[in-house]
Each structure stands twice: as C-alpha cells, then as structure tokens.
Prior knowledge:
Layout: H1 27-30, E1 31-39, E2 44-50, E3 56-63, H2 70-86, E4 95-100, E5 104-110, H3 117-124, H4 129-148, E6 151-152, E7 161-163, E8 172-174, E9 181-182, H5 201-204, H6 222-226, H7 242-251, H8 262-267, H9 269-272, H10 285-294, H11 298-310, H12 313-326, E10 333-334, H13 336-345, H14 352-362, E11 370-371, H15 372-379, H16 388-398, E12 405-406, H17 408-418, H18 425-432, E13 440-441, H19 442-450, H20 470-474
Antiparallel strand pairs: 1-2, 2-3, 3-5, 4-5, 6-9, 7-8, 10-11, 12-13
Amino acid sequence: MKPSYSYQHPPSSSKPSSVLPYKTSNLRDYYKVGRKLGQGQFGTTYLCVDKSDGKEYACKSIPKRKLLCREDYEDVWREIQIMHHLSEHPNVVRIEGTYEDALFVHLVMELCGGGELFDRIIQKGHYSERKAAQLIKTIVGVVEACHSLGVMHRDLKPENFLFSSADEDAPLKATDFGLSVFYKPGEMFSDVVGSPYYVAPEVLRKHYGPEADVWKTEAGIFRQILQGPLDFECEPWPTISDSAKGLIRNMLNRDPKKRFTAHQVLCHPWIVDDRVAPDKPLDSAVLSRLKQFSAMNKLKKMALRVIAERLSEEEIGGLKELFKMIDTDNSGTITFDELKDGLRRVGSELTEHEIQALMAAADIDNSGTIDYGEFLAATVHLNKLEREENLVSAFSYFDKDGSGYITIDELSQACRDFGLNDGHLDEMIKEIDQNNDGQIDYGEFVAMMRKGNGAVGRKTMTSSLCVNLGDALRAAEN
C-alpha cells in the first residue's frame, strides 16, 4: 500500500487537549472492538461490533500522541466534519459516530468488507476497458460531489476506494478524508500533500486548486510528473483503444486549466458507452438543494429550519464553509448579489429572476437576505430527515400542547414566528391530512417530510475529477 504524506506542522506550545468541542461517551460502552483491519499513516482501523444489535462497523482510532500541534488537532476535526458533509453520498463511506478519550479519537464508520480497489485490481489481474470505465464513472461521481460541496480530497488513489462487500458487483466507496480540505472557487493551495504515485504536477509546484484531483498517473514519480512524456508504447498500451488513450491524454494535461473537467469525462465516448451523454453541466449541490427547498410547502420549510438548528457542529461544519464562501463580506447574511456571484462561481447560468425566486424561497423571515439558519435549512441534505430523533424533535416543536396533533392554529402561530404568510394553510393541511380529520398527526407529518427526498444531492456541479486509471488499464483487455 503506497503511503500518503503531508507537511508536518512544527510542534506548538498551544496544543489543545481535545479534538472534539464536546465530551463524548466511552467507545467501549457501546462497541466491542475486534481485530485490526488496516493501518494508515495517522490511525489504525479495527472491526467493532455494536453491543445493542450486533451490527459490524469499522473504527479508525487516531492516537493523540501523534497530534503534535493545534493544526494537527484541527486537521482531525476537519476530517470528521468533511465525512459528515459527504456522508449522504451513496459512494462515500458513511460515518456513524465519533468518540474521544484521553489517548485516542475514534471514528466509527460503515464497514466495507470487500477490501481496497487496489487489492482487487491485483487479485483480478486485469479488467476489461468497459469494466474499468464503469469503475471510473463511479469515482468521477464521488469527486464531482466533493467539489460541488466545496471539498478537495487531495489523496485520491485505488487504496482509498473500498468495496462494500466481496461480491463482484459490490458498490465502490471513497474513504480516508484525512488530507481533505474545504476550498472556495479560485482559491489556491501551496502545501504539498498526497501520494507520490498520484500527485499532480501543480501540487509539486505548490500552486494548485481542485483540478489537482483530476490528475492520475502511475508512469513515474516527481521528475516524470513534472517533465516526462506520456508513454503509450510499452505494455499494455498497444492493446488499449485509441478512445481510452485520448481520454487519458486530456486528463493528464499538465495545465490544470486545459485538463478535462468531470463533465467532459462523463461525456467522453469511452465513458458513455452508447448511452446519451448529459447535455449540460450538472447543478452545484447548493443550487440543486435551493431549487428543491423552493418547491416545499411552508410546514416542511419550517421543520427543516427546526432540524437544522439542532444538528451537531460536526454535521453542519461543511455547510458553514459553503455559507462563508458565499457570504463574501462576512456580514452573517447572504444578499442577492452575493448569492448571484456565489452561484456563478460554481458554474450556474441562472437568470436574475430565477435567482431572485430561490432567494425569496430561502428567505424564510422575509428580511431580504438569507441568514445562516435559513441557509442551513435550505441546503441541509434531506436524508438527515430519515433519523427518527430529528422528526420527533420537529413535530414536537409544532405540537405546542403535546396533543399528538398539529392543528391549524398551531401551524398559523409557527408561520408568524418564522415570518411566513399564514394564508392557504387549510389547503396545505388537506394535502398532508390523510385521514381527513382536519389536523396532522405524527405519521402524516413523517410521510410529508420524507416524500420526494430520494434524489436530493445527486445532481452536482461540473468540476475536476480524479480517475484511478493506471492500475486498471495497465492490464486491461479489449
């Protein structure tokens, strides 16, 4: 397994005592820790079993003695926030919980028992070009989602993609966000991080952005990355299609601005395989979530605001970074011009009228701007609604008298509290009220909250990508 590396911060006298901003329970009160599954640069991963139901998970334990300064503690906290930020994506390893004690920080994650993509490539010996293209399409989707949500992975390689099971058709999932960072469009980075076999040339030159996640090479290390020509003469390249080689040439363009984007790769004939290619770049995560929020009824909008305000710091850290990206004057509110500029920077081509409509939908209290709470409500991933405690909490907020029902009077009062117009509430209740008793019970509320949430967050912006081609195509067959 090839190592990742990063610049080590010098020791600091201001080293904090904990990574998490809150106290947690003891990991072993809830989980039985078993055999070692893997060893990384900063932590060891173990099998762990939930004592309550016997379900198996993976636990990454990071020894705090390896965290030498404040920046190292902040790096681990950012990794946790990023995993929560991305955890609703079907091809990202889901984080279940975080624990901290005097010696370790523990990240409990879904267990992917199928092993690394790297190992499966070695085990199989070869992939067909078609199978390699299918894997790449999945990886493209993950990186596209990362960039859409303002995250640069910075350590993409076959070792950091896991299969959920040993099955031949098991889903592939991205993991290890230890070197990942939040970024803003146009922001440049200078710290040299990644893995030697996969690092992009601009990273070595210490001036790079998200395009670095596109680069993929096995041809050589630093000198070859910076200067060496592409070699399509040695095996197995003579047997590989011109279409595949053409795609690779464009993905390995040393100029980040000329390198293929995710959209261009997804439209490439080698990836498309007789299916219709997307005819335009996909929406950014912010834009697609704002669009969906604008179509919701008043109760659902208010409920999302209630839920968003109760989410933990680690769950909303990523959305906080997106808010800061758009709120360029750091006023704590997003104006129309800031929203227009922010959406333009992530690839949106909406008209001013369309942006104004989204603005009005997210501006729950009709103040003319979007505050932080409103932004969270409008952009939180709706899959978080599946958690029962969030639904119970939101229902209880509206059911002021604890009767088990939300009445029209309670709904009208909530609208006034949120600055919403309380007109047409009777029509809205009729749509939600399945047994026609004139009020909303908990089951009806849950059905309304979960309706139409299945595809949220799947549409994401055109962005750079990393494709782990080298190992798969080295042994590919026509």
